[in-house]
Amino acid sequence: MQVIGQLPHFNPDLDLERLQPPLAVEELRNNIRESNGLIFSTPEYAHGLPGTLKNALDWLVSSDAMVDKKVAIWNPSPHSTFASESLKETLTVMSAQVLTSACFTLSLHGKKLTEFEIAENQLFSETIRKSFEAFL
Question: Which domain holds residue 60?
Answer without folding.
Answer: 4-135
